[in-house]
Amino acid sequence: MGKGGEKGEEAAERELPPPPSPSPSRRFYSWEEVQRHNLRTDKWLVIERKVYDITRWASRHPGGQRVISHCAGEDATDAFQAFHINPTLVRKFLKPLLIGELAPGEPSEDRNKNARLVEDFRTLRKTAEDMNLFRASPWFFSFYLGHILAMEALAWLTVSYLGTGWIATLLLACILTTSQAQAGWLQHDFGHLSVFKKPVWNHILHKFVIGHLKGASANWWNHRHFQHHAKPNIFKKDPDVNMLHVFVLGDSQPVEYGKKKLKYLPYNHQHEYFFLIFPPLLIPVYFQIQIIWTMIRHRFWAVSETSPPSSWGSGSSPPSSWGSGGPRVTPEQGEDRSSLRCKGRGRMHRPFLESHWFVWVTQMNHIPMEIDSEKHRDWLSSQLAATCNIEESFFNNWFTGHLNFQIEHHLFPTMPRHNFWKIKPLVKSLCAKYGVQYEEKPLGKACIDIVG
Fold it and tell me: Where exactly are the transmembrane stretches of this chain (predicted)?
């Protein structure tokens, strides 16, 4: 279940299909009936025991069609609660989709899930709400944005005082890489609606940071990243592990492709070409192709969606006066061409360096974990099977944008990152109670596991 802002939700409400014809009495369904409706042209899901027909609505879902469709035929209660910060508003346009509810004799959890575990997790979420752990600190995020802008200013000072030599260029590339990596973690916060109480403000800042500071598409990020959160490490549902034309991931998929003799690439040597392709080219090549394709396919023509890809240089849209290296100044305005060339070289190296940073941070939490087909686990078990944590420290928190708390982030996507450490002991206690593995490792071992 993806997220949409208040504007997106209101627009979606206006486009709702007509409600189903009322039946003389309330209709009850069994789980067996619900689970049959998981096809592309026939989609039902359950939220808090109520059964909804989302077949016609899925294409209008503000968070994207695929993310809500991945929950077809299932209980989507925990996904619904995890992704929406204003469920009361969302329920307004769920009403016309309501077709009935589960029969009184049916359990609230589908596919023989542990009812006590599910209930205890929902109690844990209520505890987090009572502790105000979903309330963001404006000081934290103000400081975070400030330190990014400070690095942008430092990039200008580097050129001004050190000249245009290669030492200045390398230093500039490092500064801009750090600035852009941290901007990437910040856009992630806004994208998950974890900063402001009102979704609309999160969306505005998200579009600004990812569109104008990074030169990427907010809609592309939403539609891709929400699928990952809904079904992490699940084949055909998580786009982060569906890279069959480049890599074959997991334990079962390499065996399957070996039997089928499918040879897009020499997968038996993928451990060798991984380091040449994936870390350096993910952001400047693979993501840029996806962004352009998504823009064309879904017709995302807003200004922030058409900003030049970050690998082109500045990371800012043409009308904007700010890029990833600061305000543009032409030679006619007082800056010589050699200084511009220095900035250009720094910006050219930056996306490749940032791509390395991004890959190692994001993949150390997922690639070493279970990657497999859909097993219809409960929310807690499915997230813990696909994610692990990195040990907490000031550097690790800053370096990873608090994604070292990947488990807590996946369980509570809308929780501000500075509160993860507070909910962590309660999550570990719940996992221990039900024998769910809670994996945490040092930063160095996490990198080694990717190599392995």
Answer: 156-176, 273-296
Q: What is the pLDDT of residues 277-286, one digit of tens each?
A: 777 777 777 7
Say which CATH number the domain at 75 has: 3.10.120.10
Q: How many residues does the chain have?
A: 452
Encoding tokens for residue 324?
């990833």
Question: What pLDDT, in 10s, does the model give residues 354-399?
Answer: 888 888 898 899 988 999 889 999 999 999 999 999 999 999 999 9
Judged by DSSP in three states, 316 sits in coil
Domain boundary among 112, 145, 168: 112
Same domain membership, residue 258 and residue 197: yes
**Residue 227: domain span:** 114-300+347-451
| pLDDT on residue 303 | 45
Give the list of residues 6+ apart from residue 261 with CB closer than 8 angstroms, or none: none
